[in-house]
Specification:
Blueprint: H1 2-17, E1 30-36, H2 40-47, E2 52-60, H3 69-73, E3 80-87, H4 94-102, E4 112-113, E5 116-117, E6 123-127, H5 130-147, E7 153-156, E8 160-162, H6 170-173, H7 175-185, H8 187-195
Parallel strand pairs: 6-7
Antiparallel strand pairs: 1-3, 1-6, 2-3, 2-8, 4-5
Length: 204
């Protein structure tokens, strides 16, 4: 009898909240994957976004499994440096993440970003579902209106391989080297030329 009463209370609670017993739990987080040159410089801007739960530097877009930084940086695996972002869609939208992405890349160059040349530094958006693809394509059209031809690719997300631990959150582990690299690479100067006050920043 007690079990029946508890079951009845549970059913009433689900009806009151509009949740069916056979419905899966709502997805609390989602993934976004972006390539914009050196992954050290792409983690920091997203870590500053409210609703972003975690960022991981790594490699994607190539065929070889478990590539190392040495292999990817040599341009031999087909991968590019990228960041995988776990975020809460209830606090930040994918469209907002796209804006952060665009303002931290040079969309006019293909197989390079700033001082880093090679296909492993290409700018690319990797979508995880049809909605992300649609939003990415819409945002690219808007950027094309501003700059004309845009070199950023939009591709379906594939296997993502985290980089070695010393690359993760590098901007917090060695801020002096991080800022020296950004300055020497001309990243902030070029972003300011492209985006003005909306340009991405060097963070902490």
């Amino acid at each position: 009898m007690q079990n029946k009463v508890m079951l009845l209370v549970a059913v009433v609670a689900m009806l009151a909240t509009g949740v069916r017993a056979d419905e899966p739990a709502a997805k609390k987080t989602a993934l976004a994957t972006f390539a914009g040159g050196c992954f050290w410089c792409m983690e920091a801007p997203f870590d500053d976004v409210k609703g972003v739960k975690a960022t991981v530097s790594g490699f994607t877009g190539g065929a070889e499994k478990n590539p190392t930084y040495k292999q990817v940086s040599a341009g031999k695996t087909g991968h590019c440096e990228a960041v995988e972002i776990e975020y809460d869609p209830g606090k930040v939208t994918y469209a907002e993440l796209l804006q952060v992405y665009w303002h931290n890349v040079d969309p006019t160059t293909g197989d390079r970003q700033f001082c880093d040349a090679g296909n492993q530094y290409r700018p690319e958006i990797f979508y995880h579902d049809a909605e992300q693809k649609r939003l990415a394509e819409e945002s690219l059209l808007a950027v094309e209106e501003k700059f004309g031809q845009v070199a950023v690719k939009i591709s379906k997300a594939s296997a993502f391989y985290p980089a070695e631990e010393y690359h993760q959150d590098f901007y917090t582990k060695d801020p002096d080297q991080y800022h020296a690299y950004r300055t020497g690479c001309g990243r902030d100067r070029r972003l300011k030329e492209l985006w003005g006050d909306a340009a991405g920043h060097s963070s902490k």
